[in-house]
Structures are given as structure tokens and as C-alpha cells.
Amino acid sequence: ADAVLAGKFLKQELKANDWVLVKGSQNTLLLEIAVEMLLADPSQAPKVLSRRGAFWDKKRQAIISPHQKF
């Protein structure tokens, strides 16, 4: 249904050494949220993920808020 649920599902299902290829279109889904949830070090997100900055932070928060902070 959304990127947060996708991230939660993947965190639950992935095992050590599994690989995931994430391809998302430039729409309102913001799949980088799911990717950030899978990072070993989420503090690296601003360096390795796209769509960063105040504008995108606001868009991501609108998606994350109903799920609370991951």
C-alpha cells in the first residue's frame, strides 16, 4: 500500500546476504523510505539516497506519520 509497509515487509522477510533491487518511478510513493528502513546505518541516507532536503522531508513525513516513526 505504501513505502513504509513495503519496508516493514522487507525487513521481516529478508535474510542475511539477500539482495534487493528497488526501482520506483518518480511519483508520490517515495520508495526511498523503504530503502532507508533497510540501511544498516540509516544516518547515511542523506549521502546515498535521492530526494533529500526540506521539501522532500515534508513529503516523506506525510507518508511516515500515519505509521509513526520507523
SSE layout and pairing:
Elements: H1 3-13, H2 32-38, H3 45-48, H4 54-64
Helix pairs in contact: 1-2
Q: What do you see in this structure?
A:
The mean pLDDT is 89. Helix 1 (3-13) runs parallel beside helix 2 (32-38). This protein has 70 residues and is mainly alpha-helical. The protein has helices at 3-13, 32-38, 45-48, 54-64. The longest helix is centred in the N-terminal third of the chain and has 11 residues, at 3-13. The protein is 47% helix and 0% strand.
Instruction: Output the helix-strand order.
Output: HHHH
- What is the tally of helical segments? 4
Using the CA coordinates, give the radius of gyration. 12 Å
Spatial gap, N to C terminus: 16 Å
Can you describe this structure in just a few lines?
By secondary structure, the chain is mainly alpha-helical. The chain has helices at 3-13, 32-38, 45-48, 54-64.
